[in-house]
Design goal:
Layout lengths: L4 E4 L10 H9 L2 E4 L3 E5 L2 H5 L10 E4 L2 H13 L9 E4 L2 H6 L11 E3 L8 H9 L4 E7 L7 H5 L3 E12 L12 E4 L2 H10 L5 H4 L2 E5 L1 H9 L6 E3 L7 H12 L2
Length: 251
């Protein structure tokens, strides 16, 4: 299989030192960063349909920058003033520091985890220590995580859908002449089928690589053939898997 043009269904890396660029130079391939999906925030009117009063909460849990941005946007649009006493619990330190975009950073009211996961021991310990608080958890419309461990820990947590994932549609004159497609979520596969309902993988000789078990399953459920997937023991990242796949094609 000859791979010359690759679609990476993610935004272009901000840093010029991304491994993707090294791979492109080494294997003489063209990389096009073009997300199949995009995130859009719910309007204040749509959010009100959930019957959630933002002013009722004394703590908020953040798992992504998108959650941070939409929480403060909806507070502003709903004319809810975020009190200085609000406590924040973030899955990473980088996310905690991102809060400086909206608030004055004070360590005493901001806690974060080390693993990037919501059930991180350090983050859970901090939340349990403040279990008297009423927690709000901004999530997307495709959120399916089991949060029973939070309630089992005695925490009063309310998930609130504040943003949604939608298809980032292709224009009629936008070329789709790729030899390899890289996907990072099931929503990306859904967008592929929506944009190109007559897509014939075998006829066009297109390879597909994925990141994450759910994305790999979505490829199979869509009747498509998976060429490679990450993470794995040999390829812990998408770039590692891509490097391995391209090297194997050149043998």
């Amino acid at each position: 299989m000859s791979i010359k043009k690759i679609l990476v269904s993610q935004p272009q890396p901000a840093s010029s030192k991304s491994p993707y660029y090294d791979i492109a130079a080494k294997h003489d391939v063209e990389l096009v960063f073009r997300p199949f999906i995009k995130v859009e925030g719910l309007s204040a009117k749509e959010f009100r349909q959930q019957k959630i009063n933002l002013a009722d909460y004394s703590a908020v849990i953040f798992t992504a920058r998108t959650a941070v941005d939409n929480f403060f946007r909806l507070c502003e649009e709903s004319r809810v003033s975020v009190p200085d006493t609000m406590r924040y619990f973030c899955t990473t330190e980088a996310l905690a520091l991102y809060l400086q975009k909206y608030i004055v950073y004070r360590k005493r009211k901001i806690n974060f985890g080390l693993s990037g996961k919501l059930n991180d021991p350090q983050l859970m310990a901090a939340m349990v220590k403040n279990k008297k608080e009423k927690f709000l958890l901004p999530v997307s419309d495709v959120h399916q995580d089991d949060l029973t461990y939070l309630t089992e820990a005695g925490l009063d947590v309310t998930p609130a859908v504040m943003y949604r994932t939608v298809s980032n549609d292709f224009t009629p004159d936008e070329p789709f002449d790729y030899d390899l497609l890289l996907f990072f979520s099931p929503a990306g596969i859904n967008s592929l089928k929506k944009n190109f309902p007559d897509f014939n993988q075998a006829e066009n000789g297109v390879a597909i690589g994925t990141f994450g078990a759910t994305t790999a399953k979505a490829v199979e459920d869509a009747g498509l053939t998976l060429s490679f997937s990450a993470p794995s023991k040999e390829s812990p990242s998408m770039t590692a898997a891509l490097e391995k796949f391209l090297s194997e094609q050149e043998i």
